[in-house]
Amino acid sequence: MGRRGSASSSSSLESSNYPALSSRSSLYQHNRDLSTDLRLGLSIATSSQGNPSTPSVSESDWPPIKPFLKETLAAEENECNSATFFVKVYMEGIPIGRKLDLLAHDGYHNLIRTLDHMFNTNYLLRAEMDGEHSEQYHVLTYEDKEGDWLMVGDVPWEMFLSSVRRLKITRADI
Amino acid sequence: MLRMASSFPEEVLEHVFSFIYDDKDRNAISMVCKSWYEIERWCRRRIFVGNCYAVSPPMVIRRFPEVRSVELKGKPHFADFNLVPEGWGGYVYPWIAAMATAYPWLEEIRLKRMVVTDEALELIAKSFKNFKVLVLSSCEGFSTDGLAAIAANCRNLKELDLRESEVDDLSGHWLSHFPDSYTSLVSLNISCLGSEVSFSALERLVGRCPNLRTLRLNRAVPLDRLANILCRAPQLVELGTGTYSAELQPDVFSSLAGAFSGCKELRSLSGFWDAVPGYLPAIYPICPSLTSLNLSYATIQSTDLTKLVSQCQSLQRLWVLDYIEDIGLEALAAFCKDLRELRVFPSEPFAQEPNVSLTEQGLVSVSEGCPKLHSVLYFCRQMTNDALATIARNRPNMTRFRLCIIEPRAPDYITLQPLDDGFGAIVEHCKDLQRLSMAGLLTDRVFEHIGNHAKKLEMLSVAFAGDSDLGLHHVLSGCENLRKLEIRDCPFGDKALLVNAAKLETMRSLWMSSCSVSFGACKLLGQKIPRLNVEVMDERGPPGSRPESCPVEKLYIYRTVAGPRFDMPGFVWTMDEDSALRLS
Lengths: 174, 584
Hints:
Chain A has a domain at about 85-170: Ubiquitin-like (UB roll), CATH 3.10.20.90. Helix content of chain A is about 30%, strand content about 15%. Chain A contains 4 helices and 6 strands. In chain A, strands 1, 2, 3, 4, 5 and 6 form a 6-stranded mixed β-sheet that branches. In chain A, a hairpin with a 4-residue loop joins strand 4 and strand 5 (about 150). In chain B, helix 7 (about 120-125) runs parallel beside helix 8 (about 145-155). In chain B, the strands form 2 sheets. Chain B has a 21-stranded mixed β-sheet. A two-stranded parallel ribbon of chain B has the order 5-7. The interface of A and B includes residues 17, 18, 61 and 64 of A. Chain A: It is found in: Nucleus.
C-alpha cells in the first residue's frame, strides 16, 4: 500500500498531524494480531470435546452472521461429530466382550490400533503370515447383516460400516 | 394563497390525506401550514420510529393522538453480531405503558431489536381491545408465558410473528391458549421457538382459521405431521416447514407430495432444517410457482440444490447456504430470470479453508443472468476487483450490495491489490445504491470513491478498512443521503468526526467500535451538539478514569429530541454537558 496521491492532500486530515492516532504501521500490526485472534476465536476453548479450532459460537462477532444461523450450523457440526455406532467385540476364549464405537474411527487402520490396545494383542487383517508365526496372531472377523462371518478388511470402510453387526477375534489357525 | 389553503373544509382535507401513507409525504404535508399540520396530526394512523431513543413516548402521543399502528426499532444493527453488550437498552415497556392509556384502539405493534418482557406482552393483551398484529423481530426478554397471554386475550389477532426472536421457551403449551372460538389468524411465525407445541392444538388452530396465509413452523414439528397440517390449510401462501428429515418411507412421501400439490397458492417456502434430499421431490410440483425460497438451514449439497432451483422459474428471492456452489449459481442464472434478491450464507463460517467451491464467479454469473437482481448478500472467501467491476457493469440497478469475505482484509486474490477499485466500480455504476457493506483489503481510496459517487447511499457498513481519518471524512462529507453508518475495527479517530459534527445530526445513527476515537472527542461532541446523544460503552470502567486521549471501546451516536436517556447499564455513559462535568 503506497501513500495517498496528492489530490487528497488539500484536506488537512493527514493522520501524521494527529499524534493521538497510532502510526499506520503499528496499527496494521495490531490489527493483524486481532485478525489472528478472530480466527482462533475470542474465547479460550477449554473443553476437550468439539473442534478446538472452532471458536465459542455464541461469543464470536466475526464473520457477521446472526445467532440463529450460527447455532444451527454449529449444531449440525456437533451432530456429525457425536453420532456413534457401538458394536460388541469378543475375543475367542474370553466370555466377557467389549464394546467399540466404529464411528470414532476413520478406517481399518485406526480400528486395528484400538483393538490392539483393548485386547493387548496383535492382529492380522488377512491371514497373510506364513505358517511358523501363525500362532502369534489373531484374525479379526465380523458378522454381517445376513448372519455370515467374514474377514474384516475386504470391502471399503463405508460398506463395512453399513453391514457390520459385531466383531470377533479368533486365532489364525482355525 | 393562504386563503385557498384554508378554504377546503377539514373533512375534505382529512379525506385527501387518508390516501397518503408514506411518512415522508405526511411529514411534507404537515409543514405546509399550521392548519394542515393540525389536520394531519389528528389523522396520522401509522408511526415509524427508527430509533426508540430518538423521541419519547409522551412526545409521540402528544403530537399524534389517534395512532393505530406503531413500529419501533431499538438496538443498533451490530447487535445482531454480538457487538452490543447485554443490557444496553431498547426496552419497550415504557412505550407500551404510555400507549395503553393513550391508544386504546391500537391495532398493530411491530418491534425490531427491542427488549420485550412478559409484563409488556400481558399489558398489550389487556389494553388493546382491537389488537391485530404483533411482530417481534430479533427481540428478546420474554417467555412463552407472555405469548400465552396474547393467545388467550387477543380475540381479533391476525398476525403473530416472532421472527428470529430469542424466547425463553418454557413449553409449547402456550399455543393451546388460543380459544376454540378464535378463528381470525392470518399469519403465524413461530420458527424461532425450540419447544414442541401440541400438534393436535396446532392442527385444530390451522383447521379453524380459513384466512391463514402464512404459517412458519418451528424445527420441532416433524416431517410426518406436515402433510396433515397442509391438508387443513390448502389456501396457504407462505409456509415454513419444521424439520425436513425422516426415514424415507413411500407413504410419508406420497402424502407429503400430495399435500404440497394441493396448496395451489403456495409462493414462499422456508424451514427445511436437516433437509434430506430424498424428500425434496415432494415440493417439485409447486416449484414453478415459488417466488421466495429460504434454504438457509438446509444442509443439502450442490447437486440437489441445483436440481431444485432449476425448477423455480418464477423465483424472486433465494436465501441459501454456500453449498449451492458456483455451479448451482450458474443454474440459478440460467433458469431464474425473475430473481431480485440473493443471499448466500457460509456453511462453515469459522473454518479457515474453503469447504465448498463457491467463489466470486458464482456471483458474477448471477449478475449476468438475472436482469432484475438488485439485492445481494454474499459470503465468500475470495474476490477480485475485476469481478466486482463486472458485477457493477452488469447490474447498475443494484440497490443493496453486501459482501463479506470471511478473512478480514483479504486482497484481490489474483493481483493482491486492495479491493478499492472494485467497490469504486460498484458505487460508480449503481447510482441508486441505498445500502452497502464492504469487505476485504480497503484503503482510504475506496472511501473517496464512495464520497464522490454514492449519492443515494443510506446505510454503510465498514469493517477492517481504511488507513486514516481521511476515509471517514470522505464518507461523512460526500454521502448526502447517509442515515446509518456502522464501523468496526478501522483506524478512524477524532478529526473526521469533529470536522463533520453537523452531519451527525442529519443521520439516524453512527456506530464505531474498536476504532480510535478518544474520550475527549466524545465529550466535545456531546457538549457541542445538544440534540445528539453520544453514548460511550466501555467495559473497562468509567472513561474518566483513563486519559482523555484514550480511545473508547464503543461509540454510538444518534440524533434525538428526547435528551439523554436514563435507562443505561453501568458500562454506558452519555456525553452531555452534565455528564461531562461529572466524569472529569
